[in-house]
Each structure stands twice: as C-alpha cells, then as structure tokens.
Amino acid sequence: MLHPERHPRPRKEVPTFTDWFEGRFWREWVVARKNKPSEVESKESIFNTHLKDAFGEMHLDEIDVRGFART
C-alpha cells in the first residue's frame, strides 16, 4: 500500500489568473458565447484595470475570498 506522505502525488500545474482569463475563460465565455463587442470591451477593461495587477500572476488555487476582499 502506498502511503501519501512517502509517495506524494505530483502537483497538477495550475494556470495563473492571466493565463486562465486570456485562455480558457476567453474561449469558453467570450468567444464561444458570442459576446457583443461592448461586452468584450467591458471584460477587457475590467481585467486590465482591476484584476490583472491584483491577481494576474497568482495561480488559481492561490486566490481566495480574502484576496478579493483586499482589492
């Protein structure tokens, strides 16, 4: 029997917020849902103005409610 403390599972690579936003989020929630140009512009603006500096380089599993409360 394998013991987790002796044989830890390799950590799954978690994307940064920027990688997720510009990748999966953008493809699945903006492009695939055919957002109107004004909605696309709004999402880009919110990301660039409020979210990128605060969360851009953080991995998704590092972001929690306290992080949002600080911004």
Could you explain how this protein is built, in words?
- It contains three helices and no strands.
- It has 71 residues and is mostly helical.
- It is flat, with a radius of gyration of 16 Å.
- 56% of the residues lie in helices and 0% in strands.
- It has one domain.
List key phrases describing it:
about 70 residues, mainly alpha, about 55% helix, about 0% strand, flat, 3 helices
H/E topology pattern: HHH
* Fraction of helical residues: 55-70%
The tally of beta strands, per DSSP, is 0
Low-confidence stretches: none
Number of domains: 1
Q: Characterize the biggest β-sheet.
A: none
| Overall pLDDT | 89
How many individual helices?
3
So what's the overall shape?
flat
Straight-line distance between termini:
46 Å
Strand content: under 5%
Secondary-structure content class: mainly alpha
Cα radius of gyration in angstroms: 16 Å
